[in-house]
Amino acid sequence: MIDYILAPLSLPLFLTENYLVITAMIPLLSAIIIFFTDKWPGVSNGVTIASSVLLFIYVCLCTLYWASGDNSRFILMDFGNNLHISLKLESIGVIFSLLISFLWILTSIYAICYMKNNYPNSNYSKFLCFLSISISCAVFIAFSGDLLTTFIFYELLTISTYPLVTYNAINRLPSQPISDESVIAGRYYFGVLFFSSLVIFFPAIGLLYHKFHTLDFVSGGIFKFDTSLTTFVTVCFAMLIYGVGKAVLMPMHFWLPKAMVAPTPVSALLHAVAVVKSGVFIIIKVVLYTFGVDNMQHFVQQNWLAGGWLPYAAGFTIIIASLIALKQKELKKLLAYSTVSQLSYVILFVSIFSELSAKVAVFQLVCHAFAKITLFFIAGSIITKTGEKYIDRIHGIGRSMPITMIAFTICAFSMIGVPPAPTFWSKFLILQAVFNSSDIVLFVFVTLVLIVSTILNAMYFLPIIYNVFFSKSSKNCFIKKTPVFLILPPIVTAVCTLVIFFSYKVVL
Length: 508
Fold this sequence. Notes:
The structure is a single chain. The chain is mainly α. The protein has helices spanning 2-10, 19-36, 41-67, 91-118, 125-143, 147-165, 167-170, 180-212, 230-243, 255-258, 264-273, 275-291, 293-302, 310-326, 331-350, 355-386, 402-416, 423-436, 440-470, 484-502, 504-507; strands at 73-78, 84-88. A two-stranded antiparallel ribbon has the order 1-2. Helix 14 (310-326) runs antiparallel to helix 15 (331-350). It is globular, with a radius of gyration of 22 Å. The two termini are 23 Å apart. 53% of the residues are buried.
């Protein structure tokens, strides 16, 4: 059936045996066109939206190829000795690429409207150019067939998003002062991510290749369990986990809240589409395809330091980040610390080292992406409408933005993890997975972490929900009408969150 669908589509859409490369290159090609048409904003806007739709179509076709049983590896560059830059179609990469491509459509629409309203005297074509490049890097990461390819595009993603993080400093008008916050954020962003990847991540890749002569992602891992490998795995596993600084596992997290000085579409990109999601996605692939779930179970039994510490590190990050979020007065920074906490849910789930926990980790990644991008979209809408970014200055705004704030409420419940949030199912299923592991200490720890973090999340989200709907209105809540293209994307993503809640069995 799938072959009958693909056959007539192959020619008009120029699908070849290199369809993964073509798909990942679509945003990059759009970036090139935007770069040369930056004097015509209408053209840049049109190219951005058209390429985002085209990318989603191509990713859907790649998904059909995967569903038809095509798991081919595409070698982009071969260095010999089983070392290469390659792309491969596999289940987790398909899910991540669908997530990226779908959310890029909404982010493009939102970004164009946001920049037009909040940076009226700025030519934001370069912003759209780097946005497209970063999406291309994220898609290459999704399709990466080995650790070397992952590392290369991970670094390129850092480079391509740096101008977005420092946008307020780089693209200021001559009459405007230099934004110290943007400069400092850029230094932290570049410094932490490059230090972690070049000093920790890359050497771990070298050790793995020297030991096993391959970096390919293989179902079940690139080696079989051997007690003689326990010390080696202990060192390499820790290096890879902390080498992926974009996963913001403490203490590698502090660059993320500082990056909130960037325009809101960048914050949405960082938290829900490309950057931090790429970090936890890489950790999931490393656990499943480099070390292997079964192998890690045996190694942890042999030596707790071989990976048994990871659930506790993730749990620590979840609780501490939630406590810090409680003290935040600025909405975007509160959401940033919430992201630090929520991403560690994904790491906690995959660190249970079972097939069920790995599925739940991927499910949690998707659920968090839709919910968190909604919250950042709405934070940007509030800034556009009122000019306010502090929580105590937007009381009563739910009466002037009822639909938008209902969407905020739905996705705030997703951060808390209670119905109608799909993350409720994540917590329920992970308790089942950890109970099946027969590790009583771990079961008690995970249960406590989920209970305490749920309470903390409720403590900083529920007062916001109450105040925006029931408190006396702040002075700036009714300044101007919110543009429709700032309202539509968060409504779509909030609806998607509800759909996932009611259809979680289909997804899992």
